[in-house]
User: What shape does this take?
Amino acid sequence: MAGKFMAGFGVALRETGQALDRMGCRLSGSYAFKETLNRHRTVMNYEGHVPSVSVTAFVAPSASVIGNVKIGANSSIWYGTTLRGDVNSITVGSDTNIQDNSIVHVAKDNMKGVEMPVTIGDRVTIGHGATLHGCTVMNDSFIGMGAVLMDGSTVESGAMVAAGALVTAGSIVPSGQIWAGNPAKMLRKLTEGEASFFAKSAENYAALGRAHLAENSKSWEQVAEEKDMRKANRERDSDYDSHLGVKRPITSSLPA
Assistant: This one.
């Protein structure tokens, strides 16, 4: 009995709310459905600076590329990552990947008046959640997940910063070394296998970026069509279809 009463009371409340909503819309007139929306802008100008992004680069829809930023061919900026070139410039080379939730920012200058842009070379891998501020990362280097590079620091070509390491301001990580810790110091020299992996990582992420770029470039109509085609594929049974005389569309070109 109590359950039926509560159900009826709930229905009455909902109907009352709907009636009030309709009345409010009538009173609002032409402003009934005018709302203020904050639309996310993946690539955004800032004070006359327009980001330059290669047509072959992938910038995830939830990433933010702002201001004086240049991104080279086949590079990838992953989901949730921010490149904020507001008070100085950010340059990202070719075949470089900056993975999810990373932050790249600049400083106008340091205490000595030296400008602090960010320069990232070619074939660089920057792991998830890394933070780069006013630093230089040269070609073919590797920055581990959650690492922090402070103002004026430099990672030379073929060097590695371990996950979670803090490279302090002005530090130089020499080629062929791996630095780790807080503050980061030389841990050891890289093995040949580790050094060769850097190029493979960059190559893999360049290919992955192309796949994500293709998927994110699809229209809503294409997405809906592929969804229907996948559903048809799941329901396909050649023996069952033959009995019913059903002929389904061929979808062999559908991506996995």
